[in-house]
Amino acid sequence: MLQQMSVDLGLDDLSLLDLREIDPPPALGANLLMVIGTARSEKHLHVSADRFCRWLRATHKLSPYADGLLGRGELRLKLKRKNRRARMLNSVGASDRSNTDDGMRTGWVCVNIGMIEDGRTVEQQEDIHQKDDDYVGFGGESSGVKVVVQMLTEEKREELDLETLWGQALARYVRRKDRIAK
Prior knowledge:
Blueprint: H1 2-8, E1 12-18, E2 32-39, H2 42-60, E3 65-67, H3 72-91, E4 108-116, H4 122-131, E5 145-153, H5 154-160, H6 162-181
Parallel strand pairs: 2-5
Antiparallel strand pairs: 1-2, 3-4, 4-5
């Protein structure tokens, strides 16, 4: 998957964050692996996310969900509406000086690949066998790992700085875990 993202899609600066150990789990779910990559432009971002989703469906029979992805016809439709609005404003002598969000420049696409079975660490697999009777909660405990791919433009990646955010959360968890163990 990382080779597909790097070589075939041309995403730069790939980072893999292993968030399977964080407790409490992130909002995206427990047993989370997050991949972060940088696209060169807004168009490259959307084309790469679309191709990546198609590749996952065709090659691995997965059903990824891409949040923030503009479909092929959607971008064309939004540009057509924006141009029509600009022509109407020009015909009455006004200009569109508002800096409203036109919904075309997201800078960020989150591809939720979903649950992939047998993605636990060795320690987690050993703990599962010991805790089978101790599980409390809704549903059942999953044995898979959830994979999420964050594709961002350079500007958005610098603005959000997800590596630092999740790195600090992981460091806090490790410090808390060490304190409890002592």
